[in-house]
Design a protein that fits this description.
A hairpin with a 2-residue loop joins β3 and β4. It contains five helices and 13 strands. The strands form two sheets. Strands 1, 2, 3, 4, 5, 7, 8, 9, 10, 11 and 13 form an eleven-stranded antiparallel sheet that branches. By secondary structure, the protein is an alpha+beta fold. The chain has two domains: 170 residues, Deoxyuridine triphosphatase (dUTPase) (Deoxyuridine 5'-Triphosphate Nucleotidohydrolase, Chain A, Distorted Sandwich); 48 residues.
């Protein structure tokens, strides 16, 4: 009878040298083996991206970092190549220290017998803050368990070296996460608040102008009433009498007087 059950740390050190490439005995953690972040990553775009449709797979250099914003998905590729014999299966997970940041594994949790290649982890940042990761970081765990007998139904796909071509197209474009929707609501609330304050300032300005115009009108009206404006408005018009013109003596009226004076001079004795 074939022994079944999970492989111990000692069994991992004895058997994984031919199943994990590259293999490091120091990566054996109790009954699991620690895998590291590889050189390919895809992070779904958020509203901070200018053109979400142009976001594609990113190639990482040695130790290069990347981020997964809150509410966004990501595909992560392992650095190591794994081979699962047809006498076993494997279970995978993310290390607890990384899961505590809010990063959740939403892909499958098992690796089928016969699988060969690099593992792809589909993760989701369910936390409130951005998760920072880097190439080569130890972050995945894998367990091996023996089957009761070799299976003839093992996978026969080619070695998986990178992301499949159709993997990214399923989540391309901006994802409406709860964090993104919350941010949009806050931005919209701020915009509306600023607009209301602007309208209130305009109304205050127009009220002030209206009050000044009304005060000037009332002052002018009061001055007009105090100066007798209404009585002058309704009193009859004043008739101005001109003095009668004094007739000027003409030459005809002055002639008899001259004749009389001449006549008197001729009659006076010498």
């Amino acid at each position: 009878m074939v022994a079944t059950g999970f492989w111990s740390g000692e069994t991992l050190k004895d058997r994984l040298a031919t199943l994990v490439t590259p293999f490091d005995p120091e990566r054996v953690d109790c009954s699991a083996y620690t895998l590291s972040m590889g050189r390919e990553v895809y992070v779904s775009p958020n509203d901070a991206m200018q053109d979400p449709l142009n976001v594609t797979i990113r190639q990482l250099g040695d130790g290069e970092g990347f981020t997964i914003p809150p509410g966004q998905f990501a595909f992560l590729l392992t650095e190591e190549k794994i081979e699962v014999p047809n006498t076993a299966l494997a279970l995978i997970s993310i290390k607890a220290k990384i899961k505590w940041r809010g990063l959740v594994n939403v892909s499958g949790f098992q690796v089928d017998p016969g699988f060969r290649g690099r593992l792809i982890f589909s993760v989701y940042n369910a936390g409130p803050v951005t998760v920072h990761l880097r190439q080569g970081q130890p972050m995945f765990l894998i367990w091996f368990a023996s089957l009761d007998k070799p299976t003839e139904l093992a996978r026969k796909q080619p070695v998986q070296e990178s992301f499949p071509p159709d993997l990214i197209s399923g989540i391309s474009g901006e994802l409406q996460s709860l964090a993104g929707i919350n941010k949009k609501i806050k931005d919209l609330d701020k915009t509306l608040t600023d607009r209301v304050h602007s309208i209130e300032r305009e109304q205050t300005y127009y009220r002030l102008i209206g009050a000044i115009v009304l005060a000037v009108f009332i002052a002018m009206t009061a001055t007009w009433i105090r100066d007798g404006g209404p009585s002058r408005l309704f009193s009859p018009p004043t008739v101005i009498s001109l003095p009668a013109a004094t007739p000027t003596p003409n030459a005809a009226s002055r002639k008899p007087a001259n004749v009389e004076r001449q006549k008197a001079a001729n009659e006076s004795p010498i």
